[in-house]
TrEMBL record:
Keywords: DNA-binding, Phosphoprotein, Transcription, Transcription regulation. Residues 10-128 form the Response regulatory domain. Gene3D superfamilies: 3.40.50.2300. The keyword Phosphoprotein applies. It comes from Streptomyces tunisiensis. InterPro entries: CheY-like_superfamily (IPR011006), NreC/VraR/RcsB-like_REC (IPR058245), Sig_transdc_resp-reg_C-effctor (IPR016032), Sig_transdc_resp-reg_receiver (IPR001789), Tscrpt_reg_LuxR_C (IPR000792), WalR-like (IPR039420). Residues 156-221 form the HTH luxR-type domain. The keyword Transcription regulation applies. It holds the Pfam family Response_reg. This is Response regulator transcription factor. It comes from the Bacteria. Coiled coil: none annotated.
Length: 224
């Protein structure tokens, strides 16, 4: 006996370029498992619309009038937000310096604007499921590219991190962009054990997902 059909993923699209926004809305709206809950052209409107519609995912541009995408993301998903909304930030190659700030602001992931439609749709589904869209290759290419510009917090350092040596080792490998299977191979442990370590790390550090774990590691100067 088949169960009830799953509710479609509700998406709000925010981009100040009408052509881009229309394209995103068209692609998303054509999916049988998605529906567009609304669209807007600036960050302030995105915050208001998301708070009203409570979508599963907000697809957020970075550079917009009135309020930029990073600040809008912080208001919707940042630390201290009681009922955060999942945000998928889209950016372009010449804006990748903003990616780190977007992740710090609470974004669940990011994509490049020239990504093919299937990658966009995969990203939306991934973020809606509660996972982080920060695959190892993207971590290496983008986060690693400007990691040297990320200044560790003044009170950072291993002493401040409430993790066991093994958990700290796993955290560093996550920040280096390794997948669970790669971590398992590097440490000669099972993938299930890696998942357990990742869960413990997120719980101990009160982090939402792997994206926040990467940001935490860079801010604490645990990777270079």
């Amino acid at each position: 006996m088949s169960g009830a059909p799953e509710r479609p993923v509700r998406v709000v699209v925010c981009d100040d370029q009408m052509l881009v926004r229309t394209g995103l809305v068209t692609i998303i709206g054509a999916q049988p498992d998605m529906e567009v809950a609304g669209e807007c052209a600036d960050g302030r409107a995105a915050v208001d619309l998301a708070r009203k519609e409570r979508p599963d995912v907000v697809v957020m541009d970075v550079r917009m009038p009135v309020l930029d995408g990073i600040e809008a993301t912080r208001l919707l998903a940042g630390s201290g937000v009681r009922d955060p909304v999942k945000v998928l930030v889209v950016t372009t190659f010449n804006l990748d310096e903003y990616v780190y700030e977007a992740l710090r602001a609470g974004a669940s992931g990011f994509l490049l604007k020239d990504a093919p439609p299937d990658r966009l749709l995969h990203g939306i589904r991934t973020v809606a499921s509660g996972a982080a869209l920060l695959d190892p290759e993207v971590t290496r290419q983008l986060v690693g590219r400007y990691a040297s510009r990320i200044r560790p917090s003044e009170d950072g350092g291993d002493r401040e991190v409430p993790l066991t040596p093994r958990e700290l080792e796993v955290l560093r490998l996550i920040a280096d962009g390794l997948s669970n299977s790669e971590i398992a191979a590097a440490l000669v442990i099972s993938q299930e054990t890696v998942k357990t370590f990742v869960s413990r790390i997120l719980s101990k550090l009160q982090l939402r997902d792997r994206v926040q774990a990467v940001v935490y590691a860079y801010r604490r100067g645990l990777v270079s």
